[in-house]
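Annotators were shown the component list below and the corresponding predicted structure, then asked to write short factual statements about the assembly.
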Amino acid sequence: MASNRFANTLEPPYFVVTFASQRLPGDEGYGEMAARMAELAAKQPGYLGVESARDGSGFGITNSFWADEESIRAWKRDVEHLMAQKLGRQQWYESYRVRIARVERAYGFDAQPNERT
Amino acid sequence: MASNRFANTLEPPYFVVTFASQRLPGDEGYGEMAARMAELAAKQPGYLGVESARDGSGFGITNSFWADEESIRAWKRDVEHLMAQKLGRQQWYESYRVRIARVERAYGFDAQPNERT
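Structure shown to annotators:
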């Protein structure tokens, strides 16, 4: 029943990078680069998953999950990712905020169809 | 230049509650309740701000920011909020994931219009 939009993280502790951003109008290669970065990130050591949503106004949040802080630092320094970050500041984002946090507790809910009869 | 969709959090450490959810189709009073919960949360001790985005498929992420874990626990136990959580499981959400994390580092970017000339 659960959407595949959720990351299959295991028991805490692990780390989350919250990336909130306001996009500028126009694609300008953004979609292609975002797909490439998602693909590359998923291959990094310590990567646990990602959850992402962007609304019609271009405001979006991407939460990526990592086993440890060193994995996060290594991904930030990845050469292709550094290039994407630079293009992000030059042409894709009006503003963004990044927060690196240690997940201490987690829980969730998945409806069963027959719970709502 | 910065969108008012960003929370004006101060220097870490502080806490984030990431709430990722898949909505069921139809409003069923959700919009009104979400607005009421946002208003109530903002009055809680320790509340620092919120950032939220939901896409056209009904998948959304809300990150709320708090001064400490006790503030998070107190808000979770708020009577009106408990009622909203129950309705959420009964009629609004197919699935959700909640993660409580301690923000250790944060940074951001705001474009200056003349940076792109």
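Statements collected:
1. The domain at 14-104 of chain B is CATH 3.30.70.100 (Alpha-Beta Plaits).
2. Chain B has a mean pLDDT of 94.
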